[in-house]
Amino acid sequence: MRILVTGGCGFIGSNFIRYYLKNYPEVSIINVDKLTYAGNLENLFDLSHAPNYYFIRADIADAARMEELVRKGIDAIVNFAAESHVDRSIEDPSSFIRTNIFGTFVLLEAVRKVSKEQKIRFLHISTDEVYGSLGKTGAFTEETPLAPNSPYSASKTAADMMVRAYFHTYGLPAIITRCSNNYGPYQFPEKLIPLMVSNAMEDKELPIYGDGMNVRDWIYVEDHCRALDCVLQNGKEGEVYNIGGASERTNLYVAKSILDHLGKPHSLIRFVADRPGHDRRYAIDFSKIKRELGWSPTISFEEGISRTIEWYQTHREWWKKIKTGEYLDYYRRMYHER
Ligand code: NAD
Ligand code: TYD
Description:
two-stranded parallel ribbon; 13 strands; binds thymidine-5'-diphosphate
């Protein structure tokens, strides 16, 4: 089996490739990544000489390249490639439109063009953020109406709709997964958990938006990879599967538990201006994937956060290098000039 993974040099994609090749050494993976600020070859350095792993630097919005790659005889595409950070989408949505919407369309077209000769399963990695925001109770099901609130989630919603249309119109064998907030090794330190962990380790302030009572459902990235494995193998074409971590936590709780793990004072927490259009609460009903594919999350928030903190403690060089240069300019704009 040959799988084309897009965005494999990012956080979830790199964890997925490592997970997949460890569990299925007979599979070949071609990783197509543009290497934006979020793509890092070091994330898969350990696999760079593996005989069944190939890296190609390319943009998913490049139609000629994508068609050429799809014609290389692949069995499946797992589409992780995206601009993924809500705050950046608020600053400038244009790259989100280009990659998340147009890039997904280009991949779908490439698959459609070869569909008479080759069957290619298309697994599209989406997010719970397409459903918008919840009140104090309830959880997103696959039937919840789509109501995205940020340019990021709007671009992911548009991509989901295009994937859906290609299934219904052209019979393209596509499946969509919508997962909650991931955390774990190799996450870029602009996202909440790695930002809080790395700042705390450097005795820097932990910027909390608004009142810190926004809730996310945290899933350890390995649990997400296992869910994607189940869907890739046994998911039904044309379906959507929600994936969640059964770990709803407020942002303030997350920040405090990181400080407690590291033995740092809560006084490092700094409340800053809220994110515009900030979704209040996400929660996932994952009963469909549990019932139909037998998947449930296995790593508790407490276990996952201590594994994650340990990883950032033993990989200081990885994140220290990132937290300089271009990233530092962005960080200053985000937090210090607010
Ligand atoms: P990430 O930002 O860490 O990685 C994205 C990767 O895509 C990077 O390697 C980047 O170089 C690559 N990329 C960006 N534009 C590209 C383009 N035009 N062509 C080729 N490659 C390109 O993101 P992540 O957190 O690993 O998220 C991966 C996917 O999972 C995204 O589609 C995201 O929407 C989705 N998702 C993420 C989360 C989360 O909590 N991180 C939750 C649910 C869904
Ligand atoms: P984030 O990791 O950006 O993921 P998403 O916006 O996709 O859920 O943010 C997670 C939560 O943490 C979200 O409610 C915003 C909040 N947050 C902060 O309070 N401070 C920060 O510095 C960041 C990056 C996020």
